[in-house]
Amino acid sequence: MAGLEAIGVGTSQRAFLHKRIAGLESRPGSRARFRGNLDKRATAIFTLPNILTLLRLASAPLFLALFFGMRGAIRPQDQWLRLVLCLVLVIFSEVSDALDGYFARKYKQVSDFGKLMDPYADSAFRLTVLFSFSGSVHKWVHLWMVVVLLYRDILTSVVRVFAMKRGIVVAARVSGKLKAISQATAIISILTVAAVQQMSGRFAWMKGLLNRIGFTGGSPESVAFSANCIMWVVVLIAVWSGIDYFWACRRHIVAAADGESSSDADPTPCPGDGAGPGRPGH
Fold first, then answer.
1. Which region, left, alpha or beta, applies to residue 279 given φ > 0 means left and ψ of -120 to 50 means alpha?
2. pTM score
3. DSSP character at residue 107
4. What are the structural domain ranges in the chain?
């Protein structure tokens, strides 16, 4: 209590604090219960599915470090190594996206934390990769294409918020799954083509292999052209998906905008694709 007196705490306040501390310390098992509650909360968050989700979220800045940070750190003829490492990280992220939902259902570890963080981690990682592509030297992807994908994800997030205000959970939809698959396929394809193009100029055996199958390896410009062609398909699917989610849940959006309370909510959920319980769709 001498420390409290030194900082100007009065006698009455010191006596009150002393009684409160003494009361807490005298309660049997209070500290143990407090620690137990903390342990339970930590256990609920740090489950295997949630750890995979957090690792996928952490992969976004790691991808930036590999894609841009390593570009000036290695020789031009070894740029293929940077692209291969980026490709490995992308594959890890996509595999973890498939496994976290599987483990959550298998071990009955579906949580509100996972439901919120899973779609956020997916969007954060994929948009980070695509924005990186748009900022590459050869502009693999047009910036406006990535912005369209960002707007689509914002729109579906808003739709979910409106539905949640009325007690409705937006089910996963076929269009959302196709959007996620198309983005993952496009990212892996673009990185693979770019890595192969770089390796064909570095290794004679790779160039010979490509010549045998009728592929010359191309140029950086041809990689950019191919990437943008692939992204046109991704953008069209994303636009369709955003419209699909909005139209399916339009009645809940209008009702929430009119100020209807959750007690007046239509119990019919937004039409989904019949997916089983688990984390929300994309």
1. beta
2. 0.76
3. T
4. 1-45, 49-264
In tens, the pLDDT along 50-92 reads 999 999 999 999 999 999 988 777 877 788 899 999 999 999 9
Nearest to 60 by CA among 122, 116, 150: 122
| Two structure tokens written together for 12 | 């009455």
Which letter does DSSP use for residue 268 in this model? P
Classify domain 49-264 at the CATH topology level. Four Helix Bundle (Hemerythrin (Met), subunit A) (1.20.120)
Q: How far is CA 129 from the centre of its chain?
A: 11
Tens-digit pLDDT profile for residues 146-202:
999 999 999 998 888 888 877 777 777 899 999 999 999 999 999 998 988 888 777
CA–CA separation, 107 and 93 (whole Å): 21
Query: Closest Cα partner for 270 from 161, 180, 150, 121?
Result: 161
Measured distance CA(281)–CA(244) in Å, rounded? 13
Spatial separation of the C-alpha atoms in residues 61 and 52, rounded to whole Å: 16
Polymer length of the chain? 282
